[in-house]
Design a protein that fits this description.
Strand content: under 5%
Radius of gyration: 20 Å
Number of helices: 8
Number of domains: 1
Largest sheet: none
Number of strands: 0
Structural class: mainly alpha
Order of helices and strands: HHHHHHHH
Helix content: over 70%
């Protein structure tokens, strides 16, 4: 019992030392996770008893950004999107895909920042602003390229499109294997 009280006391001390910018970053992580779950999961399930476990998974990366919580939250959001589109036969809408990709990327990026930023750090607002500007630029460029490529798919339908897709997948697998090999050497 003393171990529990000691742990609670350490948590209270840590919360009392939080500074504003790391707290706002973690709040952004929680908001991005909740938005991802609300875009991905069917509204019927969000209004049921499943809301609390889904919300806890969404908020967990904000509490412990150094673990695998961000990956778990992203996988649960993607699973929710699959449940909604395959199980509840919701229409695949471009806005939902772009919104889900945007909030997942922003949550992942903020989690990476929070993982290296101590909760009691004094941080310049410009640093976080530049981080977010870069993240929003990446999201914008990705969205424009996605819409452009989707516009080309109607023109490129057929065997040429299939070959290009397979070459792209092979390139992605090759890049992943190269990165994994380089990480093992390091």
């Amino acid at each position: 019992m003393d171990a529990i009280f000691a742990r609670l006391e350490r948590a209270r001390q840590a919360l009392s030392r939080f500074t504003m910018i790391p707290f706002l970053i973690r709040l952004g992580i929680a908001l991005a996770g909740l938005l991802a779950m609300s875009v991905a999961w069917p509204p019927v399930l969000l209004a049921s008893q499943f809301f609390l476990p889904i919300a806890l998974v969404a908020v967990y990366p904000a509490i412990a950004p150094r673990g695998r919580g961000a990956t778990l939250a992203a996988l649960v959001a993607v699973a929710g999107w699959l449940v909604d589109t395959a199980g509840y036969e919701a229409r695949v809408a471009l806005w939902r895909v772009l919104a889900l990709a945007t909030v997942l990327y922003l949550g992942h990026s903020l989690t990476a920042l929070a993982a290296v930023l101590p909760y009691d750090a004094v941080v310049n607002v410009d640093m976080v602003g530049n981080w977010l500007a870069r993240a929003f630029a990446i999201v914008l460029v990705s969205a424009v390229l996605t819409v452009g490529v989707l516009g080309l798919t109607a023109d490129l339908a057929g065997s040429a499109f299939l070959i290009a897709t397979l070459v792209g997948l092979a390139g992605a697998v090759g890049a992943t294997m190269l990165i994994a090999r380089l990480l093992r050497r390091a």
